[in-house]
Specification:
heterodimer, A: alpha+beta, PmbA/TldD fold, 2 domains, six-stranded antiparallel beta sheet, 10 helices, about 20% helix, globular, B: alpha+beta, seven-stranded mixed beta sheet, disordered C terminus, binds zinc ion
């Protein structure tokens, strides 16, 4: 039996046993990784994770179960469990149906044959290159990081004849440098992600990381102040995916668990800021022809020139809000779908980083943030520590800062976006330039 | 499972590995989500797999697969070893891994509780979740959303290495989290709480869950009246829940010996040195009957109660076999993996600050101006610089020894060693909490806690834009 036969078995068997609808979802992820520590290669890892999730409905009673083993016996057990759960659950009058088959569009550059055919040992030389490129100065005393590549495949089949099969690849390379001088420690980091191996410049990652670590030496204490903040794409991507994105998910909108639930078509940011979710973004790490319940993916405008234009939906929440699914269902084989962004793209502006910095009288430049996961999603409030911060004075980065906290909320932050840079950086599923925000409280 | 594991180990040794261990896991995991009286999600399933770790001439190889078939497993072993051989040539002699000795044991542990999860019907688990949701929803009309999550896992873990250690663990854990969202005049506030048990369903129900649900809803309502918090440096009174997060985040992660060995911890080279006030004693105890404990770690080492700070002096690190060998110390059972698909890394178990002598009243009375911070929404640390951040669920002004105005969304940040030196009073109360800790993409159950503690000059990040107006 091949994999698709098991999906078919699950769906057919569920229908036979009384399901009104059934949907089988299979996911396989095969990853290779080389790690280094203390600027020397340390270990290798290979992992293969796969499983099958089965969703059934019996007259609007929804059930779900999964298994990581593909055998006839385990599939039949899973069917039995899913149906049993469905019968226990109360009827959901808001359930409409599983998605119907629709035409899929192919996404460009999500599958890289080079990664697909890669053997673990082929990652060793690039790792050595990365390590070498970190050693730019004898003040760089330690460094860790690694390179990992993955290939994934997903398959879906439901009672309406919806059938999908998609695959992709990804690479993640990272460096974390430690510098030391006169008992002071500095840290620096850089990482790059892509769907294609050849898009990664290992030397650049190592060099950037160590340069930041050197620049972080000579830290000074600052006083609490209100000023401008320039977020490096790493920091801004973190804010977007941890805090803002969930506030634009249809389930949170329906439940009023977001400050933006009643703000559709209202101005919530400045005219500089346009944010799009695009599941078809070429070479996007979150791209795929269809989402994890088989709905075709699409481009969804979330904010256009500061105006809130849309939210993200999966099949169920779209049904509840009487809109179309935006193709943003996400899951692993072990869970029911929930809403998630695919690729979040910030529309670039015209200034480079130097141009943005040159207009700032007093502010800070923040490469990364610590603690975004502690934000209060329903209110949008967050208070996070800056990581690798620098003081900006009279248009230039002057010195590294010992400690600075940034506190605001998403509504306020969006309304104070003053400048959107032109140089986009791919940070996982987020693509953003540096962003300048005016008048934020910085405590130290 | 024994036969399969021995076969894999034999193959590894035959191909030249100096060390091999095999971890086989089979288990059932489940999740129930209830929101606003409605059963939103239930997912129950079976997961199994094998993780294989090999050491060849000082180089690690790790390979895992969710398959239990011999053909996949032997391939998995061969691939782990092949790359370990290649990288062993690239590792400098001083950086090569070796393993400190641990006793060879045939061990067993079982924690399934009195009311085994497998024997509790799905109906009962669902109805408990629904009931708690209802308690929160009914508390006040301003509670616009109540969510309860139930998580469970039970199964068996089998460990075997080439040194003759064999360990079989049969265990289960269950976990509940509750969130209430209150809305009034466009203001949205939320409060979260949790309860958990290592063992059966009986232990979870003993937690007075209904009261916890009531409290969760009540606190969300109180937060509606909260005022924006100030920013700047203040004296803080930290409650046992948040002090647990402080000890875990700011200190515990820096005590994990992998960061010590890699030079990424502020506590490297500080063993037997005084690092904080004499009153400070910190323990990580995996022998407690609590959420974060295990009898054996995932390298087969029996776990211990580790006194890490005694009277302000750094006494020990959290060590696995590799880091113990590097630092010439004894392994203390701190290697943990989230599941078979990860190589074990150095982790905490239940970490706490030992209680002191002051009464909460006398400490509070002494504070003329300050901030009382309670509960936690989580935190994070960079061990290399000691920069930490954590977020309180509740905060109040302290004025002349009195707890007054509630404050909104307060975070605390600082540098570990500086902050530890500013601990001014440790109270004699004590509480342990439960949670999950994430490190290198691996989540493991951990406990933390301590008493109320007074700390001076903590950096508070609030939302109030007035800089020097408040208190100082
Ligand atoms: Zn942690």
């Amino acid at each position: 039996m091949n994999t698709f036969d098991f999906l078919e078995l699950a769906v057919k068997e569920a229908e036979k046993m009384g399901a009104s609808e059934a949907e089988a979802f299979r996911e396989e992820v095969d990853s290779l990784e080389v790690k280094f520590e203390k600027l020397t290669i340390k270990e290798t890892k290979r992992s293969f994770v796969a499983g099958l999730g089965l969703r059934v409905t019996v007259d609007k009673h929804i059930g779900f179960a999964y298994t990581s083993q593909l055998s006839k016996k385990k599939i039949l057990e899973t069917v039995d469990k899913a149906l049993k759960i469905a019968k226990l659950k109360p009827k959901d009058p808001n359930w409409i149906s599983l998605p119907q088959p629709k035409k899929y569009r192919k996404v460009k550059d999500v599958f890289d044959a080079e990664i697909n055919n890669m053997e673990l040992e082929q990652l060793i030389d690039p790792t050595l290159t990365l390590i070498q490129s970190m050693k730019i100065n004898k003040k760089i005393v330690s460094g860790s990081g690694g390179i990992s590549v993955s290939k994934w495949e997903k398959l879906i089949l439901n009672s309406y004849g919806l059938q999908g099969n998609d695959k992709g690849t990804s690479i993640f390379a990272s460096a974390f440098s430690i510098s030391s001088d006169n008992e002071e420690t500095g840290t620096g980091m850089d990482f790059a992600t892509s769907t294609r191996f050849k898009n990664i410049n290992f030397e650049e990652i190592g060099k950037n990381s160590s340069e930041t670590a050197l620049k972080q030496l000579g830290k000074k204490k600052i006083e609490t102040f209100v000023g401008d903040i320039v977020f490096h794409p790493f920091a801004f991507a973190d804010l977007l995916q941890q805090i803002l994105a969930p506030e634009l998910y249809g389930d949170n909108v329906f439940k009023k668990k977001t400050p933006f639930y009643s703000k559709l078509n209202q101005k919530i940011s400045t005219k500089n800021f346009t944010l799009i979710d695009n599941g078809l973004y070429p070479a996007g790490l979150g791209s795929s022809s269809f989402d994890d319940e088989g709905t075709p993916t699409q481009e969804t405008v979330l904010l256009e020139k500061g105006v809130l234009k849309g939210f993200l939906y999966d099949n169920y929440w779209a049904g509840r809000e009487k809109v179309e699914s935006t193709g943003n269902a996400s899951r692993s084989y072990s869970g029911e779908p929930s809403i998630s962004f695919s690729n979040l793209i910030v529309k670039p502006g015209n200034k480079n980083l130097t141009g943005i910095l040159s207009e700032i009288e007093e502010g800070i430049y923040v490469i990364s943030l610590i603690g975004t996961h502690t934000a209060n999603i329903p209110s949008g409030n967050f208070s996070v520590a800056s990581y690798m911060p620098f003081k900006i004075e009279e248009g230039e980065i002057m010195y590294p800062i010992k400690q600075a906290m940034i506190s605001s909320d998403t509504s306020t932050l969006l309304s104070k976006i003053d400048e959107v840079g032109k140089d986009l950086k791919v940070v996982g599923g987020v693509v953003t330039p540096p962003i300048k925000v005016k008048n934020v409280a910085v405590s130290a | 499972m024994e036969d399969l594991a021995s076969k894999i180990i034999e193959l590894g040794l035959e191909k030249g590995a100096s060390y091999v261990d095999v971890r086989i896991e089979k288990g059932n995991n489940g999740k129930i989500t209830v929101s606003n009286g409605k059963l939103e999600k239930t997912s129950f399933g079976f997961e199994s797999g094998v993780g294989i770790t090999v050491l060849f001439n000082g180089a690690w190889g790790f390979s895992s697969t969710s398959s239990l078939e011999w053909s996949k497993l032997s391939k998995s072993m061969v691939s782990a070893l092949k790359t370990a051989k290649i990288i062993s040539k690239k590792i400098k002699e001083e950086n090569k891994a070796s393993l400190a000795d641990t006793p060879t044991i045939k061990g067993k542990d079982e924690y399934l509780g009195r009311e085994k999860l497998i024997n509790i019907s799905l109906e009962e688990k669902i109805s408990l979740t629904l009931d708690l949701d209802k308690v929160m929803e009914k508390f006040d009309g301003r509670i616009k959303n109540a969510t309860v999550n139930y998580l469970e896992g039970y199964g068996e873990k089998f460990f075997m290495n080439n040194e003759g250690t064999e360990i079989k663990v049969l265990g289960s854990r269950c976990y509940l989290s509750m969130q209430a969202v209150a809305v009034e005049n466009g203001k949205v506030q939320s409060y979260r709480s949790n309860a958990a048990n290592k063992g059966g369903f009986d232990g979870l129900k003993e937690h007075d869950l209904e009261n916890k649900a009531l409290e969760t809803a009540e606190k969300a309502i109180v937060l509606l009246k909260a005022k924006p918090a100030p920013s700047g440096k203040y004296t803080a009174l930290i409650d046992p829940e948040l002090i647990g997060v402080f000890v875990h985040e700011a200190l515990g992660h820096a005590l994990e010996a992998d960061s010590i060995v890699s030079g990424e911890s502020i506590l490297a080279n500080k063993l037997n040195k005084k690092i904080c006030a004499e009153e400070v004693n910190v323990v990580d105890d995996s022998t407690l009957n609590w959420w974060g404990s295990e009898k054996f770690d995932d390298e087969g080492t029996p776990t211990e109660k580790r006194v890490v700070i005694k009277n302000g002096v750094l006494k020990n690190y959290l060590l696995n076999r590799e880091t113990a060998s590097k630092l010439n110390l004894k392994p203390n059972g701190s290697a943990r993996a989230m599941n078979y698909s990860y190589k074990p890394i150095v982790r905490m178990s239940n970490t706490y600050l030992v209680k002191g002598t002051y009464s909460l009243e006398e400490v509070l009375n002494e504070i003329k101006e300050g901030i009382y911070v309670k509960g936690s929404r989580g935190g994070q640390v960079d061990t290399a610089t000691g920069t930490f951040q954590f977020n309180a669920q509740e905060a109040y002004k302290i004025e002349k020894g009195q707890i007054t105005t509630p404050l909104l969304d307060v975070s605390l940040s600082g540098l570990t060693l500086e902050t530890l030196n500013k601990v001014e009073a440790i109270c004699k109360d004590f509480k342990l909490n439960v949670g999950f800790c994430g490190k290198n993409s691996q989540l493991v159950p951990v406990g933390d806690g301590g008493p109320h503690v007074k700390v001076s000059e903590v950096v508070i990040g609030g939302r109030k834009q007035k800089i020097k107006g408040f208190l100082r």
